[in-house]
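User: Before I run my own analysis I want an independent prediction to cross-check against. Here's the chain; please return only the structure tokens and, at the end, one sentence I can use as a sanity check.
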Amino acid sequence: MLIHPWDAAVDSAEWRHWLDTSEKFGQLIVPNLDPALAPLALPTHFTVFDQELLLHFAKPNPVWKHLAKASQVRLSIIGDYAYIPSNWRVKPGFETNGVPTSYYAAVQFVATPTIIDEPADKAFILNEQMKDIQPENAPTVADNDDQYGRMLSGIRGLRLAIVDVEAKFKFDDANSIELRERVNKNLEDRNRGIDRGAAKQQRRRLAAIGDWAIFKDK
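Assistant: Structure tokens:
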């Protein structure tokens, strides 16, 4: 994706913190075996585990034959998005003709996939995901237990070794502090959908970056 310098993550800690404080849900994009057809897109929860991503899908999922041949896949996550209308972004010298835009946070992982079929290894993936996504009252899965162990045959695990990370926080950081503060107030007042999530991210970026013309030379 296009990432202008002013939209880039300040450091890797920024995108990691955003993921840690957001719902870890995205779309896994897998190349189609037939290059003439569209890639496969799978909505899914995921867990960041060191330099890997852990996932699982049902065994009948048609994606497996495509994953088996894929050298790389992409996991795309987006959140804290909002539409910013033109009248919110009017700049000095113009009375009404601002340019509308979208605000959003986005992280994309490029990774190499490994399919996991050993019951104990699938149980490991499930336990790490449960600890991550359901830290309270998370059940423990073992390949030999009566409740969950027998269900492991119905899924396959997936480990994605991270090759590259693209992180983008598009919140008008190249524009003036006055404009950003004005848009932020408008987001809070409108309070539609996840406007306040977008406003929170914009305030965080404003505090971290301030005036882009000064920040970019640091």
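Sanity check: Strands lie at 25-30, 40-45, 47-49, 52-58, 73-84, 101-116, 155-170.
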